[in-house]
Design goal:
The chain is of the alpha+beta class. The protein has a domain at 164-255: Pdz3 Domain, CATH 2.30.42.10. It is built from nine helices and ten strands. A hairpin with a 2-residue loop joins strand 6 (215-222) and strand 7 (225-232).
């Protein structure tokens, strides 16, 4: 091998430096790709996470407002509250050195206000059971009442954002509308559908959707007099695969004014509350399938989908965003009123079941044996948790199958 002079060493060093530069360049490109991929991954994860976070926060707010109703009324009557908890399951953290401990638990579904002597009698004069029946009634009723008021407030906000609101008065028909042929006329004010009072336009849409055969008994106010009609509608298949009425008439839009916001908010809240109750009856009679129902997981999914839709509509701006926002707010009002109505049902373990025992106590002026009541609520709670487990499993299956 010929001796290598300075030139060979120079060339070797040059190649070595070039190789290092290329490696450094490749490393820089590679690291840049990692940073770019990481940024894209974070953005993709955030796009999935933030709607769920918003849904959990709003759902948590509705639960918080419910528990604050119980808590505030208990404090008003100077009842000793041992713990105020949001969530269920394992404790994440808590604070409070005085008589009440404030706790956040791992699962963001549900909450509790634990009062002294709530389940069994104690010597403490500030215990729950030591209070008069009417005070205990108000404490238990306050949670659902606050949820109903939250729903009413959201309804009022929705109406204040609108230029008008649908009334119960018929205004215009689709071409060849069977309802018009059956005798329904423009200007008719719908007062009853299949024997049920119509409070707002929500009742018109919902009660017609519940009809199974397309022939509806209507009561309308026409020219100041009540008129009964048997109206026929066309039927069409809906998203669940069932046939439902095709509404072929419009409703007159009334202008929203500051003085009638509360009026319509109350009427529409009453309509939503009854809609929840009638939906429960439909469920009990088998009209709805298990897959049509939603538990906490399904509710969070629905809220997150609406939040995502509102965010996407915000990019379009104008009416699209406003409509998406109004739909989102209406969903929150619906859920808030739903929580209020559900908690007032006379079901053991729920506020309504406990209120029923209190009503019996106030009527007969004698409390029901606490041991018996505890057994009833215990069994009710077990059945309720089992039901929630089944519904949650159904929610998960629907999510996996892409139905929600």
């Amino acid at each position: 091998m010929p001796p290598c002079g300075w030139r060979c060493v120079d060339i070797a060093n040059a190649r070595l430096n070039t190789s290092r530069q290329l490696r450094n360049y490749q490393l820089s490109i590679h690291m840049g790709g990692v940073r770019l991929t990481l940024a894209i991954s974070i953005a993709a994860i955030w796009a999935k996470v933030w709607p769920i976070a918003v849904a959990v926060l709003f759902f948590g707010f509705l639960i918080l407002s419910h528990e604050l109703g119980h808590f505030s009324m208990a404090k008003l009557f100077k009842i000793r509250v041992n713990e105020f908890a949001i969530g269920m399951g394992p404790k994440l953290f808590g604070f409070g050195k005085k008589e009440t401990k404030y706790v956040l638990r791992a699962l963001p579904f549900g909450g509790s206000v634990l009062m002294e002597g709530e389940e069994e009698a104690t010597e403490d004069p500030r215990s729950f059971l030591a209070q008069k029946a009417w005070k205990r009634f108000l404490v238990l009723f306050a949670g659902a009442f606050v949820n109903l008021m939250c729903g009413l407030l959201i309804m009022a906000i929705i109406l204040s954002m609108q230029a008008g609101v649908y009334s119960k008065t018929v205004h215009g028909f689709a071409e060849g509308a069977p309802s018009r042929v059956s005798g329904l006329m423009e200007g008719d004010k719908i007062t009853k559908i299949n024997g049920k009072t119509v409070f707002s336009s929500i009742d018109v849409f919902f009660l017609l959707s519940r009809d199974a055969d397309g022939t509806v008994d209507l009561e309308v106010r026409r020219g100041g007099a009540k008129t009964k009609l048997k109206v026929r509608f066309s039927m069409e298949e809906n998203t669940t695969g069932n046939a439902s009425i095709q509404q072929d008439f419009g409703l007159f839009v009334e202008k929203i004014q500051p003085l009638n916001v509360i009026k319509y908010a109350v009427l529409e809240s009453v309509s939503v509350a009854r809609m929840v109750w009638l939906s429960l009856l439909d469920m009990a009679t088998g009209k709805f399938r298990l897959s049509d129902m939603s538990g906490p997981i399904g509710v969070v999914t629905i809220i997150s989908d609406q939040a995502k839709e509102a965010q996407q509509s915000a990019q379009e701006g104008g009416e699209a965003f406003k409509e998406a926002l109004l739909n989102f707010l209406f969903l929150l009002a619906l859920i808030s009123i739903n929580i209020g109505v559900m908690n007032l049902l006379p079901i053991p373990a729920l506020d309504g079941g406990r209120l029923l025992f209190l009503i019996v106590e106030m009527i007969f002026r004698k409390p029901i044996p606490k041991k018996f009541e505890a057994w009833v609520h215990g069994i009710g709670l077990l059945l309720l948790l089992l039901f929630m487990l089944v519904i949650s499993f159904s929610d998960i299956v629907s999510l996996v199958q892409g139905k929600r």
